[in-house]
Amino acid sequence: MPQLGLLHWRAWTVLLGQLRRPPGAVCIRAVRSHSQVAEALFASQLKPDQEKSNFIIKTPKGTRDLSPQQMVVREKILDVVVSCFKRHGAKGLDTPAFELKEVLTEKYGEDCGLIYDLQDQGGELLSLRYDLTYPSSLTYLCEVPFARYLAMNKVKKMKRYHVGKVWRRESPTIVQGRYREFYQCDFDIAGQFDPMIPDAECLKIMCEILSGLQLGDFLIKVNDRRILDGIFTVCGVPESKFHAICSSVDKLDKMSWKDVRHEMVVKKGLAPEVADRIGDYVQCHGGISLVEQMFQDPVLSQNKQALEGLGDLKLLFEYLTLFGVAEKVSFDLSLARGLDYYTGVIYEAVLLQTPVHAEEEPLNVGSVAAGGRYDGLVGMFDPRGHKVPCVGLSIGVERIFSIVEQRMKIFGEKIRTTETQVFVATPQKNFLQERLKLIAELWDAGIKAELMYKNNPKLLPQLHYCENMGIPLVVIIGEQELKEGVIKLRSVASREEVAIKRENLVAEIQKRLS
Fold first, then answer.
1. Residues whose CB is less than 8 angstroms from the CB of residue 480 and which lie 6 or more positions away in sequence, other chains included
2. CB 206 within 8 A of CB 347
3. How many Å apart are CA 376 and CA 106, to the nearest integer?
4. What is the pLDDT of residues 236-280, one digit of tens each?
5. 3-class secondary structure, 417
6. 247 and 110 in contact (C-beta within 8 Å)?
7. Domain Aminoacyl-transfer RNA synthetases class-II family profile, which positions (predicted)?
8. Cβ neighbours of residue 356 under 8 Å, at least 6 residues apart?
9. What are phi and psi of 108, to 5 degrees?
10. Contact 400, 77 (CB under 8 A)
11. Distance between CA 136 and CA 139 in Å, rounded?
């Protein structure tokens, strides 16, 4: 119960005034008195020097509104992504926007400070669904909720996609498309299958989506956590420093090897000669030939873990060649994804800096898609520890959207914000009833139609509206048309008009729109 002394004197005045009234009077004015009390309580919570006029209306930091034009662009992006997922046989899945806090924090470890916690409202500690995104890597929004779903429902095989919002509590970088609230699209394959077939399909999907979005040239970097661990082992990195050194290696796309080596030696206490040995490996990148080269390495080839990873990568490149996308994939030993639960192949797609158009400036948005194999995550949720192998990818919609937005501004592209196909107009007064009957007929036939919300609109503003909104057809009804049993059908682009019999109107419109 709140302390009574904290109520502002205006709130007390209203409450005491109600208590002095006869019971009937209090009941009669109950609604009004409740409103007064609420108003007084709100005013009492304001700081003494706070005035309503000082209140700034804005979106919270790291979030934004999307205009109708922006929503059209986002929907087109999502349509390309989801259509590709469905083409590959994925089922849709949704999970709650918030999870039990322990489900997220125990799996994200040291990065759980970036998770939004919710106040306890019903005996459960909850946190908003989260995406762990570093400047050099992009990971999933829904891996942990998906793993929880599989374990909870005892699902052993599933190919699914998930489109949804996630939240991360960190300083946003708006210019790079990094927000605190953002959309991502996930595709995952769960189940025990022959090696590298699902992994190759994930990379194929990534290529299809990035090509379909026409973002320009891109490259998918591929590595394997087992190869990384093998390199650290043969180079002499203490196992206790694996995670820290992995984090340093992952910065090589942003920092020079000299700076990364300095961080390893000075800040993380790695022996200089060990850092140098790591440098001989992690600065290498190439295709299948590099995989073969690593097989022949006299030191690395002695490590069982690394050999397993190299064997899988060789098979992966064979499948990628059959899929016709091997030239878009590079074996990059500097790719070192940060999350602990990746167990095998890891990959990350980056846009190359060459702009699509000469007028376009390079926009550094980091990775736009990423993923990998996480065979142990489901077992972390299963009471008996039963594992379900999983591999998947995530598309960074906000980062892609930032690129598309830039191009919209450069080229001044006009975007239709509605899908209206026909506008119902009249040049005369007192035809609202006829317009309503006509538009109902169009709607019932599945035609997207609009009319002006006025009893007696003038014809010219109606036609101007159609031109501004990009509506292709106008049907016009007036006294003459009503007498003759026809409707005028006007093409907005050519301004040509033709009289159509009323009973043939729907068929004629459908013919023109097909």
1. none
2. yes
3. 14
4. 999 999 989 998 998 998 899 999 999 999 999 999 999 999 999
5. coil
6. no
7. 62-427
8. 214, 215, 216, 407
9. -95, -10
10. yes
11. 10
Residues 283, 303: Cα–Cα separation, whole Å: 20
Angle at 177 between CA 172 and CA 180, to 5 degrees: 35
Structure tokens at 86: 């469905």
Q: What is the pLDDT of residues 419-471, one digit of tens each?
A: 999 999 999 999 999 999 999 999 999 999 999 999 999 999 999 999 999 99
Instruction: Dump pLDDT digits (tens) for 374-389.
Output: 998 888 777 788 889 9
pTM for the structure as a whole: 0.79
Residue of 382, 85, 296 lying closest to 204 (CA atoms): 85
Contacts of 188 (CB under 8 A, 6+ apart): 142, 143, 146, 158, 159, 160, 161, 162, 390, 391, 392, 393
Strand extents, DSSP E, 247-313? 285-286
Please give the radius of gyration of the chain, using alpha carbons only, rounded to the nearest integer.
31
CA pair distance 319, 194, nearest whole angstrom? 12
Distance (Å, whole) CA 191 – CA 160: 12
Instruction: Dump pLDDT digits (tens) for 31-41.
Output: 444 455 455 54
Element (H, E) at 118: strand 117-118
- For residue 118, the cross-strand partners are 126
Q: With b meaning 16 or more CB within 10 Å and e meaning fewer, what string describes 109-140?
A: eebbebbbeeeeeeeeebbbbbbbbbebbbbb
- CB–CB of 270/236 below 8 Å? no
- Bridge partner list, 422: 449, 473
> Is residue 109 over pLDDT 50?
no
